[in-house]
Amino acid sequence: MDRLMSMVVVGVVAAVMVQSGAAQTVYVVGDSLNWTVPLNDAQAYSSWASNKNFTVGDILTFNFPTNQHNVLQVSNDSYNSCNSANPIGNTITTGPANITLSFSGENYYICTVGTHCQLGQKLAITVSATAGTTTATPPPPPPPPNSSSSVPVFDSFFLTVFCVVAMAFFL
Q1: Which residue segment(s) compose the domain that 103 sits in?
Q2: What radius of gyration do the chain's Cα atoms show?
């Protein structure tokens, strides 16, 4: 009877964890364009970001070939001037690069290779603390029709399953 009661308690705890677990979204920056110098469209990344709702905990995936591009988080001034003098963090030179959005507010990313940033390889987004309250900065013209490559990731679900299996094994 004690074992049955323990299993019920574990099940209830697992159900609560699944319901309260926050989902992350993985965004492939630029979708099929990936992270590269956009041809004939310096606003390509602004257009891409315009219909996305970025939230703390989401992940940006910058797909680029190693040694051809990089990604660096910078301030607004550095973003506007394509200057990497005052970076936020380190330059990521190995692609693909996954960056977890760790704070709300404006986030700016550039490629520091050659004149890539000046040619439009830069991204400005607004990250909200909670889902559904953000828009891209600055607002560009309407984006071309393109499906989002966002993928929900439910880490808490897998953690819950692991905990339930582990507790069932030890009870």
Answers
A1: 22-170
A2: 20
